[in-house]
Every structure is written in C-alpha cells, then in structure tokens.
C-alpha cells in the first residue's frame, strides 16, 4: 500500500476530516518530504498540520501538477502561489510522466491565455510579493509575458527595485528576487527603446533615484555606471566554421568574424583581417588563440585557465590602482543607433597542449564559440535619460551626470558619445566638459572626431558656451572645425531624420514627426580651386578619403549589430 500523509490545516473544526495525500504527491514538496523519510509499516499514515495554509488553498496545491493547474482561478492564484512557495514545491523537476512542461510553465500558460493579469489589482499584488516569495519571483523572471503584465506598475513602485539593488550592494548573493527585479527593469527598457511605453523624463528620473537610493539623478547615474552587480547574462554557442560558414556568423544579434591564423602565431591587433587569414573549416587547428577553446555538449572543455574577455585591458578600477576595492569591468554602449566593434587575439593553448588533450587532429569546423552578453538594464534607462536630455536640449544635465561619475568611468563613456549618429557634437562636448581631468587619449578621440566627421549645423550654437571649458587640444580642433581656412562651409541637405526636439513624449506626436521626416543639415569644409591644385591639399584629401572609406567599410561590416539602445558587457570565449 502506498504510504500517505494526513494533512490538517489551521482553522479546521472537529468535524473536518484530514486531507490524505499520497507519497507520489508529497514528493513534489521539499517541505513535506521530511515527513516521509521515516520507516513505514504497511497501511501506516503520518499526520502533519500546516498552519499557514487554509484548507481551500491546501486542497488546490496538494495535488498532481495537472490537477493544481486545473483548480486555479483568478481569485485563488496569488494565494496558491504563496502556498506553493510555503511548501517549497520543487520547481527544478517535472513530476508528470512523459511531460516536458514544468508546473511554472503550465501556470504561466493558463494565466496568459485567460488574461488574468489584465486585472490591475492582481498584477500589482504580484509586484508587491516577488521579494518575499521566491516561487513568485521565479514565476515573474522566467516568463517575459508575466514581466510585461507587471512592468507598467514599476513607475509607481520603484522601491521594489531599490530593495534588490541594495541587496546586491551589500554583497548578498543573487537570488530569484534579484533576477525578477533585473528582468522587470530590462523589460521596461526594451519597451522604451522600441517606443512601446511612454514615460516622461521626470518619471524616469524618479525611478532611477528611488531604485538606487540616491538623492539626485546625477548620483543615481554614477551608481548605475560604477556598479556591475545589477545585471543579467545570456550565453549562446555557435560553430563559426561548420557548414561552410567560413567563420562569419551571427550570435545573439552580434556579427562575428572568426578566422584561423597560419603559424607561427603572432599577436594581431589591426581592425582589418590579415590577408593570410584562414576560413576553411577543414584546416587543421594547431593552437587556440583569443577567443579561446571551450566546450559543447559532446566534447570535454579545454580550459587551462579562466576565460578572458575582449576588453580586460581596459578594466576600470575604482580608487587607487593598488587597492583591492571594487572594480567595474569595461563596458560598451550603443547610443541612438551608433555602432562599435571589438577585435583581438592572444595565445591561449599551444600545439603541445592540444596534443596532450588528444586533440592533435582537430579542425576549425570543430571549434565551438561560446559568447556571453551581460546586460545592465538600469544603464539602459540611464542612457534613455540622456536621450531625453538631448530632446529637451538640457545639455547642462549631461555635464552634471559626467561630473558625478568616477573619472575613469566617465572617460570611457565619452568615447561612445563620439560615435553616436545624431547630436554627437553636444553629447560628446558637454559630457567631456563634466569630466575633471579628461585623459589625453580621450581628448585626442574628440579632436579627431571634430576634424573628420560631419555634424548637424543646428547643434553648433548650443556648444559655444562649453567650448572654453574643454582642454586646449579640443578647443583648437573646434576652432579648425568652426573657422576652417579651406574656404566657405558647404551645406549638404540630407533626408536623415534628426531626433525630434519636442518635449512631449506622446506616441501620437512621435508618429506625426516620423511622417513629416524633417530635413537634416550636415556640413563640411570645402576647398578653393587653388587649394585643390596644391599637392599638399591632394594628399590631405587622399588621406581623408581613405579614412572615410575605411569608416564606411567598417560601418557596413557592423551594420548587423545595430540596436536602438543598449548597455552591455560582452565576453567571448571559443
């Protein structure tokens, strides 16, 4: 006879018969398994009293998975989820024979299909509960549809995010509640990025300050960019040389070119691939360079040490270089349609090590690239705030944000400001003006951008007040940019739509702006006839043309990686 447990509930009367639960059901609950651990005699029953679950809810949750879902209603959903958390339902297993759907997945499907979260009170209650009940937190962060239903209420309750932010600041381990908070903020950022959620600049500022426990928006942004704890990561694997791909693959939205380098190995740091690069998947692999060898499901990992990242050389350490304090891994940011790229290699595994692993005959087509993208959703919201400052032409606020950050962090971000497609002139100059002690390297980046790139003529008046506050090298480059000796400025009309300057955030007005497609104006200096004939002018023109063509090639090469807006770290291992 199958062992069983008699369950009573707080509030049961003398006439209430106990609920008899069989062993097969009890094994679903970690809370109850200890009752079943003793020796059983045939027909024996054990009895337990559950004080924090009412009988009606107990009758719902103490069943097989399929029966639990069938018994759920909109009215008892929240109480049932809390009860499942209390009895520690084992969400890591599937107890229905022959099924591939977990209990969480089954509940999610019923909630979505029935449209229960259209009830604002229920959605609000889920938002209020995920911090206390891990089962509800997992229910939220494992299912994007649940995140989407709960997300709109974040604007009025940013403190639920702040609680999880502070837990990570205190060094507490990441748990389901933290993951739920990160997922909710990421969902909000995605919707704002794709213009599916209207939020005002003031609302966004309030959310950022409350979420980080800061007193000002500038302090909030500093905390967001100086901490790398409040994040999530996604990992994917791909074989870049399999199926005649030739090393060119797309992984999680990023275009990747992997190549083999013929021996002997030598470091290669150029932006362009070498002429003797190998893309034939049948080529024999003699050693592994950075990105390096990892594993797939069928082959043991070749891991001689920890995986490197593409940007380890630019790791940003907070405080003194020799201190063991906090550090921020370098990060990439894409602003308003800008693009960026990374490249590099370094020896990881030599030919002798491959032979020792029994992989002396491995081919390029056997290499598996593992890519991990770490996403920082609060940085996305902070960058959206920067975008809104541009729309409102409140450039002083941009300087305040840069000034509040650790210099090395702000110094890194200014490089990304110099790569955006629109309004890059005020963005990079006002950001740079807020950095005390801007590095010479970044000043050179800005100077080069001023000397070689096109800018929107309407942005020039806005930056005139801030130019005197910048390093002398940038001031000199700006004077060259503004009063070139090469002759009059030529205005070229384009159909590229600049960012709207309206302070309204309504989707209706933005749609009207898209239909109007205003004409943007970009400018560049022109040469006189005598200058065109000068050998020096022709040489300068050739250099400029080569640089421009190289940028255009790189832009075309990286066009697949464009996203509306994101803030991520990404590590690549192979």
TrEMBL record:
What ranges does the record give for the region Disordered, renumbered to this chain? 495-574
In what ranges is there compositional bias, type Polar residues? 497-508
- The lineage's top-level taxon is Eukaryota
Compositional bias annotation for Basic and acidic residues: 546-555
Protein name listed in UniProt: Uncharacterized protein
Q: Which organism is it from?
A: Vitrella brassicaformis (strain CCMP3155)
